Amino acid sequence: MLMPSSAWGQVVFIFVFSLLRYLVIAGIAFCIFYILLKHKKIFYKIQQRWPASGDYKREVTYSLFTFVFFALVPLVIKLPFIKPYTHIYTDIHQHSRLYFWLAFPLMLVIHDTYFYWTHRLMHHPLVFKRVHLLHHKSTNPSPWAAFAFSPAEAIVESSVIYVFVFTIPVMPIQLFSFLIFMTAYNVYGHLGFELYPKNFNRTAIGKWINTSVNHNMHHQYFKGNYGLYFTVWDRVMGTLQKDYDAHFDTITSKNFSKN
Ligand SMILES: [Zn+2]
Ligand SMILES: [Zn+2]
Q1: Which of 98, 225, 109, 111 is nearest to 157 (CA)?
Q2: How far does residue 218's CA lie from ligand 1's centre (Å)?
Q3: CA of 119 to the centre of ligand 1 (A)
Q4: Closest to 251 in 3D by CA, of 46, 8, 22
Q5: How far is Cα 60 from Cα 77, in angstroms, rounded to an integer?
Q6: By three-state DSSP, how is residue 196 classified?
Q7: Which of 224, 223, 95 is nearest to 168 (CA)?
């Protein structure tokens, strides 16, 4: 890989990688849904109003700060008293081919679990204002809101990488693939439009998959729907909003119908 070998070189590399990933993925989503298709009425906006330009500015500014904390990860895990406890490997033969392919879905399951529980914790009244309120300033989120976190929440969100490297064998390529997928799904979650088809939420698989309608409801009502990729924890813990299915049906039935 192109990754520099020095720790500070890696910090710069990860920051630039994070920035480009965000600007490209959120930028494409914004151009398509907030400019090109804005008046086309092909996809129905989950909330009818549009965010103000001040919202976009806040979302982009804080997202850029968040990447500083992601960029510091290689510096921390290279510290001499931390490095021996990490499980990063670079020789693909060190673990089986099966594990190589299973690691990615495993990372999604671990991240979803980590996200659900830290997210619920951040909604506790003792910490909500200081840690998580900034993300909830986007009551009508745009794709730029995907990483709009306070510095404290940025530490929590970037710490999922520490969880991976301390608990499972992981290759740099898997971490990079994960970061790209995580960004894309995060942008989709804050898109303001639903991309999954009608009745997806009622299929055997779709029932367990998180959707943009689901996360948009979380931003609108500030409670329930705490998951990221899946609805498993929300369903198991009884935190899925009761009118989620009805809301999903309403929005998706208006997609492609000229509203
Ligand atoms: Zn929240
Ligand atoms: Zn959000």
Answers
A1: 111
A2: 6
A3: 6
A4: 46
A5: 27
A6: coil
A7: 95
From residue 192, give the alpha-carbon distance in Å to each of 158, 228, 259: 24, 15, 15
Distance CA 111, CA 118 (A): 10
**What are the backbone dihedrals phi and psi of residue 219, each rounded to the nearest 5 degrees, phi first?**
-70, -30
Sign of the dihedral through C-alpha 25, 27, 29, 32? negative
Digitized pLDDT (tens) for each residue of the chain, 259 residues in all: 577 888 889 999 999 999 999 999 999 999 999 999 998 889 999 999 999 999 999 999 999 999 999 999 999 998 999 999 999 999 999 999 999 999 999 999 999 999 999 999 999 999 999 999 999 999 999 999 999 999 999 999 999 999 999 999 999 999 999 999 999 999 999 999 999 999 999 999 999 999 999 999 999 999 999 999 999 999 999 999 999 999 999 999 999 987 6
CA 91 to centroid of ligand 1, rounded, Å? 39
- Tokens 């990063």 map to which residue? 88
Alpha helical stretches, state H, the chain: 7-30, 53-71, 73-77, 97-122, 133-136, 151-158, 160-167, 172-189, 212-221, 232-237, 244-254
Max CA-CA distance within the chain?
60
From 135, 138, 124, 137, select the one nearest 157 (Cα to Cα).
Answer: 135
Ligand nearest to the CA of 148: 2
Q: What is the DSSP secondary structure assignment for residue 204, as one 8-state letter?
A: T
Domain ranges of the chain: 7-254
Q: Find the 79 Cα to ligand 2 centroid distance in Å.
A: 32
Q: How far is the CA of 48 from the centre of ligand 2 (A)?
A: 18
